[in-house]
Amino acid sequence: MLDLVFSFSLFSVLGWIIEVLYRSSVNRRFVNPGLLKGPYLILYGTGGIVLCGLVSLFGHVNIIFKVLIYAVVTTGLEFFSGMVALRLFNKKLWDYSDNRFNYKGLICLKFSIYWTIMALLFDHYVFPFYRDILHNIPDTTKFIFGFGVLLCMLVDLYKMVHDHFFGYPSEEYKLLKKEFLERASNYLTNPAICKLKDSLHHRDKNRLEHVMEVAFYSFLIAKKMCLDIDAVVKGAMLHDLFYYDWLREGPRLHGLRHPRISLENARKLYPLSKKEEDIIKKHMWPLTIIPPCYLESFVVALVDSFCSFRDYIPCLRRHLFRDENI
Ligand SMILES: [Fe+2]
Ligand SMILES: [Fe+2]
Question: Quick one: pLDDT at residue 132?
Fold first, then answer.
């Protein structure tokens, strides 16, 4: 675990240095690559770890097979991270549109060849050398560097995500909150949903406050990502539609079973589309293993985890809707 964190941090920082040198020399000015502000690139950290795994697994197979694997994995990683940045943050971090044989400007033949050559060099020269020196680095150094960089990266990531999705000027934020409350009022007039107010959910927060928070943050993200807002709000408002005190009563394995219970209860109240059903059923993912089928479900599942986590950290806990007379 310590080696993994240290390696991830080290590759992230080294990747950032390589990209800064390359891009700054091409543009003849300093260019800070990536989405984060600090000197690290998550793509290189992830790529380095994946490559270490691949070299360990396929280090001895024949060269043609190896080239194929490295080409597919490095190009796949580049495409995936490019799509994530584009879809989540509306940012095109690189653009290969001018290169021949490109796909959506995110991958192209020329750079796939570069990545494959770099992966082969990594396999042949870097990995054996790195594996040897890794054992000689003291654990304290690994811990301080590995977790230090990782912590900075997480804070940086949190700030970037927060600013992008929730960093509205106060007037705009108020208007968005008003729009959300108008949408939510469709559900708040239903006594079966109002009844959630009587169940404690996380610490001193009742279940209605929790679903409202999840629905509001999911609504803000859905707006930014141009997702299906109606489905997001409806799915999130109904995602914890059960009435027992989950800490003291209810079924065994509550965490795994309550999405189904909520779904059955929601079906009794409203007709649900496939997407809305998926949002409710998969809101505990990855605990419920089968991944969501829609981006909307991913958003609600992530927001639900975040809100639940935050409710247990005293300095982060908020009661967004306590004064709204819901
Ligand atoms: Fe839940
Ligand atoms: Fe929840």
Answer: 86
